């Protein structure tokens, strides 16, 4: 009797202990796997062109409020003036090829893509080898599914894993991002393709034709519905940003994996779209007034079986191509394509088109793209990028923390190594010195 009640009490104790342990483990899992990501609210404005002061936590709040009320045209010229970077391009075409692994275009490690792939994308290969395009392996952060990747491509922030859960129930996106910045300066935007964009940015596009990604077996209509508007949109000149999101290649992957027999024809189709854009817009620009930049990106890659979502090399190896950097491209096109982070596209585009870098951006400016911005302009572009990383951390008002973060990022950008070429570095150095004294 006595021993029975004892073992009963012990059993209860063990049970309670086990339940508590389970709850602890579950919370640890949830907090670790779905960490709450702090984001800065609000939108970058003209204040981001000024250096934050040590004791000024609310950097330029007033200027934001004042300048946001400017008409778009005036805001546009204000940003141009403040940025000091001459506008190189007037309009932007972003072509998203869903699920295209960079390996198909740029190869892997030191190896070129297979002969079959090179022959399926002859135009893009010619652009790359002639130096009319620069290609990057753009590392996508997991989860490698479309919606969180699109958010990263426009905001420069890396979202939480929880975004996977919302992938099929996309809500409007309110964090600071490039498209919002473009709309403040009065850009007209057109969206053709995956309707995720329209769910993220309702009411933003002047013209749109959303394609549903629901029918994964459909590899023809999803792309035909985009390409059917190409002729008219490419000859229209009332837009500043044209987004094309082709879903077909991803669907081919879901049907038969990387080696599906539909893959090569699909690559060829994509290559033809790029050729069409290049010949009808970009080459035609040469006698016109508008200069257009074409970016070809993929949101994520795919495994051999055509799946994606995880963090393997095959899934995260997405591509970013900048096409038409004219004579600005370095003469010796690199044999080995660099690996960047997918979010690096964001500050680079922001600098190229003179809009403030979105507030939560963690990407860094791609030096190769801004290479043609000579001397001081180029350096000031970099410094501005560092400022943003400061601004992201403005919740830590301690000056010495600013300096540490600052030095860290300067090192990251190889600044200190190139000190000799960097006239502004000394100035920054002095400021760091001053801040340490405080
Ligand atoms: C393509 O467009 C047609 C006609 O507008 C529409 O019926 C069809 O559902 C669209 N296809 C997809 C995949 O959205
Ligand atoms: C460019 O040149 C072609 C013919 O060379 C001409 O038809 C076209 O109108 C020109 N475009 C502009 C914008 O001047
Ligand atoms: C940096 O600070 C030291 C003392 O803290 C001072 O002697 C030196 O002149 C300062 N350098 C600059 C460039 O301000």
TrEMBL record:
Keywords: Endoplasmic reticulum, GPI-anchor biosynthesis, Membrane, Transferase, Transmembrane, Transmembrane helix. It is a multi-pass membrane protein. The chain crosses the membrane at residues 12-34. It comes from the Eukaryota. Its main location: endoplasmic reticulum. Pathway: Glycolipid biosynthesis; glycosylphosphatidylinositol-anchor biosynthesis. SUPFAM superfamilies: Alkaline phosphatase-like. GO terms for biological process: GPI anchor biosynthetic process. The keyword Endoplasmic reticulum applies. GO terms for molecular function: mannose-ethanolamine phosphotransferase activity. It is found in: Endoplasmic reticulum membrane. InterPro entries: Alkaline_phosphatase_core_sf, Phosphodiest/P_Trfase, PIG-G_N, PIGG/GPI7. Coiled coil: none annotated. GO terms for cellular component: endoplasmic reticulum membrane. Belongs to the PIGG/PIGN/PIGO family. PIGG subfamily. This is GPI ethanolamine phosphate transferase. It comes from Zostera marina. The lineage of its organism: Eukaryota, Viridiplantae, Streptophyta, Embryophyta, Tracheophyta.
